[in-house]
């Protein structure tokens, strides 16, 4: 190994091949040789590469840490409002669950990005409008528009958070894709935090039970609810101060699941034919079908958001192209099913919302698939795919605003 290193010291490509063949032996041999090679620029580079120690966890500044602690406490207190003021829990959580975390995260990014007073006022104003509107809707549990508004309000708050993250109103596709990447990293980090919290909870309750103390109710009423509220906030803080923590995990997950989802989708579509089920006459099946569509689309979007010019191989582009094309087929089936139901039984708030959402998704998927085809034919780069996703996000935001604020009035709160 020593002789090979010396003989190829001036050949970076061959030296890299030797290193990849047996990294352990290469490092040991190079460390022995380095004292006599010191001063050679390539040898100095390899010495730094082989002995570089990654930085530890960065906990940010005291101000940042203090902000996160206060934000976590505020989120926990918002979650506890029904208990503190005797508010009906079903009424509060169904309408306001998004306000527990999203406004706090928006405040964090507005502070971190040093947004102007005007932009901060816009974020606060939009959040306040959503809060007042959703809580002023009639308390009719059978109202479809109420349910739709409550569901889409989370997407509306997510869009506001995106504005705070991007930090500007003008088009910035790179920052929008960074926002999608942040969401993927946040899901991974928050899941890890919740798993750790679940283990700590089990150990804590078990230890107290051993000595005869039943603290389950007290623990879940305070520690549990504050912990759940704080998890995405702490997860956000960690992903922003330590991007290396999950920066390599999210792309790996995307690469693993893209081909698996493609295979699953093919098998599922074949199974539908033999099952006798169809989305045209089965409402619940149509809902599950649409949920599948959104999930697959999210996999495609996050996979592309994680990509760069060099990280996607041709095989991976083929997988994403086939997945996009297959998702268009799924979307076409769902869209035809909802049109069939409207022609048979008329328009309802739910059918209108699904029709509009599916239509927007179909257009976006067609744009993405077209760009992926151009990448395969080498007439465009992966940046074209990324831009097709990023530039379309405001369209989803506009549709969300229509469903949240216009649908209840349009359908007379039914």
Description:
The chain is an all-alpha fold. It is 79% helix and 0% strand. It has 18 helices and no strands. The protein has helices spanning 2-7, 12-21, 23-37, 41-51, 62-79, 81-85, 89-96, 102-112, 117-136, 144-166, 173-210, 216-241, 249-275, 283-305, 314-345, 349-376, 382-390, 393-410. α3 (23-37) packs across α4, α8 runs parallel beside α10 and α11 packs across α17. The radius of gyration is 26 Å and the shape is globular. The relative contact order is 0.08. The mean pLDDT is 87.
Please estimate the helix content. over 70%
Cα-based radius of gyration, to the nearest Å: 26 Å
Which of globular, elongated, flat, extended, rod-shaped describes the shape?
globular
End-to-end C-alpha gap: 77 Å
SS class: mainly alpha
Mean pLDDT: 87
Q: Unreliable runs, pLDDT <50, ≥5 residues?
A: none
Work out the number of β strands: 0
Largest sheet: none
Tell me the β content. Answer: under 5%
Please report the number of helical segments.
18
Sequence of secondary-structure elements: HHHHHHHHHHHHHHHHHH
């Amino acid at each position: 190994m020593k002789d090979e290193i010396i003989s190829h010291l001036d050949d970076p490509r061959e030296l890299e091949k030797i290193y990849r063949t047996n990294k352990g032996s290469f490092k040991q041999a190079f460390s022995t040789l380095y004292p006599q090679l010191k001063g050679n620029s390539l040898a100095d580079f390899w010495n730094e590469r082989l002995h570089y120690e990654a930085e530890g966890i960065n906990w940010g500044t005291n101000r940042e840490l203090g902000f996160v602690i206060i934000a976590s406490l505020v989120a926990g207190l918002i979650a506890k409002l029904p208990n503190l003021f005797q508010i009906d829990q079903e009424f509060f959580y169904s309408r306001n669950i998004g306000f527990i975390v999203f406004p706090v995260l928006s405040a964090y990014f507005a502070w971190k990005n040093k947004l102007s007073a005007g932009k901060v006022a816009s974020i606060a104003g939009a959040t306040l409008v959503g809060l007042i509107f959703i809580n002023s809707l009639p308390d009719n549990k059978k109202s479809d528009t109420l349910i739709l508004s409550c569901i889409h309000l989370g997407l509306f708050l997510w869009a506001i958070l995106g504005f705070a993250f991007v930090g500007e109103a003008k088009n910035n596709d790179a920052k929008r894709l960074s926002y999608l990447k942040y969401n993927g990293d946040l899901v991974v980090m928050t899941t890890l935090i919740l798993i750790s919290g679940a283990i700590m909870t089990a150990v804590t309750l078990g230890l107290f039970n051993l000595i005869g103390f039943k603290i389950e109710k007290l623990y879940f009423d305070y520690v549990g609810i504050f912990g759940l509220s704080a998890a995405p906030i702490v997860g956000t803080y960690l992903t922003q101060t330590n991007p290396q923590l999950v920066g390599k995990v999210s792309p790996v997950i995307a690469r693993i699941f893209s081909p698996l989802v493609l295979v699953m989708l093919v098998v599922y579509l074949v199974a539908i034919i033999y099952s006798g089920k169809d989305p045209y006459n089965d409402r619940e099946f149509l809902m599950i079908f649409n949920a599948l569509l959104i999930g697959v689309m999210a996999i495609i979007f996050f996979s592309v958001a994680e990509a760069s010019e060099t990280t996607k191989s041709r095989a991976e582009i083929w997988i994403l192209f086939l997945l996009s094309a297959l998702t268009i087929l799924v979307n076409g089936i769902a869209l035809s099913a909802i049109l069939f139901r409207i022609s048979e039984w008329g328009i309802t708030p739910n059918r209108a919302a699904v029709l509009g959402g599916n239509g927007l998704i179909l257009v976006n998927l067609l744009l993405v698939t077209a760009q992926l085809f151009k990448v395969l034919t080498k007439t465009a780069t992966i940046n074209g795919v990324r831009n097709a996703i990023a530039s379309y996000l405001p369209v989803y935001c506009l549709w969300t605003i229509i469903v949240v604020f216009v649908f209840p009035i349009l359908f007379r709160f039914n």
